[in-house]
Structures are given as C-alpha cells and as structure tokens.
Amino acid sequence: MTEDRTEEQRKSYRPIDAKGFRESIGRNWGPVDRSVVLPDGLAEAAAEHRRQLAAALPGRRIAIAAGHSPVRSNDTDYRFRADSDFVWLTGCQAEGAVLVISADGDSTLYLRETAGQDEVDFFANARDGELWIGPVPGLKDWSDALGIACRPLEELSSAVRGAVPFMLATYGVDPVLDGLVRTSPYDGNTLRQTLAELRRIKDDWEIDQLREAVAASVQAFADVARELPEAVRGGGERWLEGTFDRRARSAGNGVGYASIVAAGNHAPVLHWVRNDGAVREGDVILLDAGVETRTLYTADVTRTFPVTGEYTSAQRQVYDLVHQAQLAALDAVRPGAPYRAFQYEAMRVLVEGLRDWGLIDVSLDEALGPDGQQHRRYVVCGLGHYIGLDVHDCDAARPETYFAADLEVGMALAVEPGLYFHPNDETVPPELRGIGIRIEDNVVVHADRTEILTADLPITADGLEQWVKANLPG
C-alpha cells in the first residue's frame, strides 16, 4: 500500500483537477464590483473621434484592435498598453478588444466576456481568470461607461464576414483580427495615415490630458532634483530613474517612454536609456522623461541641470546657446507658420553659434542647405515633433501633412533643440567634450497665443541653478 502511494505521488498533481476542488470552487461567492470609472469627458471625446474617422472614410467598414501584451520572458508578459489609435477611438484599454465601425458609422466593441464564477476559466486561467488577476469589467460594464454597443469577442468573426476586401483594419496588432480580415498593406497604411492626420489636432479634452501629464512630470523632475545627493553617494542614474518612475506610476499610468537619465559623458548620447552610470559632482544631468496619464497621453520633457546647482563655465557656454535656440524656436510657433519654421529658427541659432566657436567653417546658407549640414555632427536629431497618445505622435501621417503642413490651432508639440559633444570628439575643444545639453518644452498652439505647458520648469541657466538648489534637501 505504501508502495502504491509513493507511485501516486510521483505522478503530476494539479489541485484544479481534483474533484473536491472543482465542486467547491464555484460556490458561495458574493457580488463583485466590475464597474468602469472613466475621467469626465472621455466617452464623449472618443465618440467624436469615431465620428471624425467615419466622416474621413465614408462608406468604409473599419476594424481597430487593442492588441495583446508582448511576452517578456517564458510565461510572463509586459504590462498591457492598448494600441493608441484604438484608445483614441474608444477610451477603452481592454486587452484583446476590437472596435468595428460599420459602413453607416455605427460602432460595436467586441470584448472577451468575463468568465463566471461557475466557469472553469474563473479559476483555471492564470492569465485572465478573475481568481488570479482580480475583477474584470464585463460587456455591460464597458457599454454603460463608454456609451457604445459591446458584444462577445466570439462574435467578431461573423461581424467581419464578407468584409474582404471591403474592410480597413489595423494589421500586426492582433493575430485574430489579421486572420479574419486580409487587409492589403495599402489599405492598412491608409487607415493609419488617416488616423494620424486626424490626431494631429487635439480637442479641449485631449489638451487637458496633456496638461495633466506635464504637471505630473514637473513634479517628477523636482523629485529627481531632491534625490541628487543620493545619486552622487552611489545610487547613480538608476536611482534617479527609479525616482521618476515612482511619481509616474503613482500620478499616472507610468512613464510614457523609456526615460533618458544621462549624467556626465552620457549626456551627448541621444538615446541613453541604459541609465546605469554613476552621478558625480560637477556633472550635468540630461533628464528626458514624461509621465503618461491613465488615459495614456504622455508628456515629453527635457531639462539639463547641474548636479551641485552650479554649471561650469563650459557647461554654461553650451547651455546658453541652446537656450537662445529654444527662445527662437518658441517664438516661431504660431498658427499659419510652416511646421518646419520653429526647427529652422532653432537650427539657425545653433549654426551661428557653432560658427562663432570655430566648429564649422561654412556659411549659414551652406550649412542649412541640402548639401551642407556640417553642423549635424553636433545636432544629429530633429528639434521637435507632435505629442499626444504617442511620445512621437502621428508618425504615420504622410510627409506632406506632417512636415510640409502649416501649424494649426490645437496642435501639441515638443520643441527640443540641443547640442551634443561626445567625449571622444576631437573636433571640439577639450573643455567642451562630454557636454550634452537639451531643452525640451511641450506647447499647444492656440489662436491668440502659444501655451507653454512646461512653463513651471525654468529654462535659463540661472533659473535651473536656483531650481536645483531650492530642491536639494537641507
């Protein structure tokens, strides 16, 4: 008998297969609150966005997927973040959901229905079951919150039946939708382009979301400044990254993109996201980071400030030139101005400064001409972009509507001139090597003014020195 029990113990054992467990697990559960709480105005804004899309593509059937979490390692996933176009059209962040807009403009949201407490998925599905992940809103909960018809995801196939080739759909976001609707690359690009071009103009609700994202980011920058002594004592860039992340997670959904926390010689590296270096007295910190709201709108802010509260003369020399470029760029942001105007003005100031320093020896016209660009060694990146649900928003727009268009009321932009002198760049004087400076403000174009959302963060060298000292503990 003992021998039989030992053999039984060698077999695979799963409690969820036990008869007693299965008979008891589905009984005696009380009510659960699955209601969806949304910010005021979200459902109305999303409904208007759907109306705009239907008007831009009249008579077309459209399907947009929320997507799924990518695998991080083995059986663990990254935290889910819904597709930006899907969120713009629905306000919903349910994994696996699909929005279908009919040819007459009616919308239906297809979602995975929550497994009941008497169903196997309730306790056996570690990825989606409520026993494992907590209460999940059901179809009625989403419908009540968003004011949109919601149907079980299992009905999606019949909803899109006969859609080939008469449906536009996002491709590569959800394999289920990809299998149901064979959208050509051209059609998929048309849908993404249309959405990107519509999203260039923010409505009042969206602008409020960006204000919220920036306000939280300004708080997070101050948090980082307060932790500079701990970073110098050994916490390094990692400590400052974690400090910003804590505020981003508590004030919003998290960070809107991988934060750049670049100290010392790392500051000239445009996308320094390793954030694993030391922080030393005498360094400047280039902090490029933004909080993403719970509605997924993100700020994109950069300040470059001295660890001890005082720039060296060389650091200040570079900073002051970038600051002049920023002022010139901001002055060029106005309705009707070409989109490239603010970038041109910033680049003009930088080129003139580099010429004065002897780092380039060609005329301004040659440097800024298509066959010149000698200054790009020190200014490799662009100097601005749209912001919104994506940190580099509306990238799928056609070049003629992104780069060649004029600025319009409701556009939200990041304006970010900078200079980057790498520590091993022998074309610059030794005292300038290893200095990277960027200033990035978030702005909104209004009919009568440019609203600088980041105005609470100083941009002058003197202002940033005072700001650091005011935030340092003690």
Automatic annotation (TrEMBL):
One of its GO terms (molecular function) is manganese ion binding. InterPro entries: Aminopep_P_N, Creatin/AminoP/Spt16_N, Creatinase/aminopeptidase-like, Pept_M24, X-Pro_dipept-like. SMART domains: AMP_N. It is an enzyme of class 3 (hydrolase). Its EC number is 3.4.11.9. One of its GO terms (cellular component) is cytosol. The keyword Protease applies. Its cofactor is Mn(2+). GO terms for biological process: proteolysis. It catalyses: Release of any N-terminal amino acid, including proline, that is linked to proline, even from a dipeptide or tripeptide. Belongs to the peptidase M24B family. This is Xaa-Pro aminopeptidase. It comes from Kribbella voronezhensis.
